[in-house]
Amino acid sequence: MKKYLASDIDGTLLKHNNGSNQKRSVLEKDIQAIEFFTKQHTLIISTGRNKISTFQLFDRLNQQLTHTYYITSNGAQIFDSDRRCIFQMTLKKEIAEQSLRLFYRLNTHSDLLCSVFDGEKIYLLENQEDTQEIPNLSKIINICVESKNKNMGDIQPIFNQAKTFYHCEVHQNNWYVDIVPQNISKAFAIHFIIDLDSENESYQLGAVGDSWNDIPMFEIADESYTFHQSPTEVKQKATHHIDHVYQCIADFLEK
Question: In terms of Cα–Cα distance, which of 202, 101, 112 is closest to 151?
Fold first, then answer.
């Protein structure tokens, strides 16, 4: 049976393997397990990162993976193994404007940083003057607000108020909040890929991640994996708790 494994990046593949004070890395055993898995099955990289930082990471790792799709910006852009874009959706202009107004209003202590991605370039914003550098707000793929202090409390007001917006989706990942087009999620993107790729074959879907924006893909997976140190709500949604991705792959291949 064909297997698909959807894997998050940050906190999942890329994490503090040598202690919280050390630089994040990708475990060599995880890389080897992925290479083994993709010889016969399909990997779906599923991340909130935009395409630029996603592909830069895999270039640094010198990983040109076969049988791999890339979900970026929580599903607003999808790429095949040759990094060709096969799906893209943009935010409505009024939602982009509303999101930026919310960011400026709540960033009273300059504890937040906003990144706006238009599909080709990342714009970093801290004050209203920075918005003038963005050429076209109708082409925005996603807006990400992060806490400079890596404090979840800093971004909670952004998350709570953005969730009241219409015509968009809001995803939380630790100290990040991502605002993406309506109906866009990792789960939506996984369905898109499988519908395109599976040719009505029977298949099994596995998913591994560490945060709240991974829950949608847990809910559609046959087998879902998260880490012992993940937030309680995330662990409650996963069927298996692990320490490393290679353990997830080994278990999923046996199912």
Answer: 112
Q: What is the pTM of this model?
A: 0.95
Question: Between these two residues, 21 and 101, which has the higher pLDDT value?
Answer: 101
**pLDDT band with cut points at 50, 70 and 90 for residue 4:** very high
Distance CA 92, CA 168 (A): 8
Q: What are phi and psi of 189, to 5 degrees?
A: -65, -40
Q: Model confidence over 25-38: pLDDT tens digits?
A: 999 999 999 999 99
Best CA proximity match to 76, nearest among 96, 57, 105, 98: 96
Weakest mean pLDDT among 197-206, 220-229, 233-242:
197-206
Residues in the chain: 255
Q: Which of helix, strand or coil describes residue 104? A: helix
DSSP string, 198-222: STT--EEEEEE-SSGGGHHHHHH-S
Q: Is the dihedral of CA 232, 233, 236, 240 positive or negative?
A: negative
Locate 199 and state its tokens: 């040719």
Grouping H, G, I as helix, E, B as strand and the rest as coil, residue 37 is helix
Q: What is the mean pLDDT of residues 166-179?
A: 95
Reported as half-sphere exposure (CB side, CA atoms, 13 A), residue 157 has a value of 11
Note the maximum CA span of the chain.
Answer: 55
Please tell me the predicted confidence (pLDDT) of residue 20.
Answer: 73
Strands laid side by side in the 168-173 sheet: 122-125, 112-117, 142-147, 176-181, 168-173
